[in-house]
Amino acid sequence: MSELTAYHEAGHALMAHLLGGQVQLVTIEPDDDDGPRRSGDAQILWRRSRMSDREFAVKSVQVHLAGPVAEMIYSGEPYHPAFIAEWSADWAGALAAAELLIPDERKRVAHIEQVSIALHRQLQGDDLWPALAAIADHLLAHETLDAEQVEEILEQYL
Questions:
Q1: Which terminus, N or C, of the chain has the lesser number of Cβ atoms within 10 Å?
Q2: Alpha-carbon distance 116 to 12, whole Å?
Q3: Residues 6 or more apart in contact with residue 144 via CB below 8 angstroms
């Protein structure tokens, strides 16, 4: 289970980094003081003053879905992100972010499904998968990575 969680959180962290967010912390041992029990967490800092609400929504959808997609690639199981209970917060976050982009719920769900497919192709590529796997490996070894550690890992691959 911890390997799946490490790949899941690494997916969020890598996508946020690729889209211009700064990963403040990524962990597979989150603090539960601020809400419901989670098996992992990625804290991302965005420079919102440099982007429109629409641009932020596009990025947010991708970051929310990147965790489940990374987990699917690692496990080899092509699940639908809406049907896995552990991914419900990710799916709900993607739906909420995409509401600004596509008000019609049916079209919004179809859009998010297409984003998931595109992310699957992108993340499993030879240029990104090694970086994602390196973050996951470091998470398994250390459980928590700070901003500096994530940057050091990604410098080697990107």
A1: N
A2: 13
A3: 25, 26, 27, 28, 29
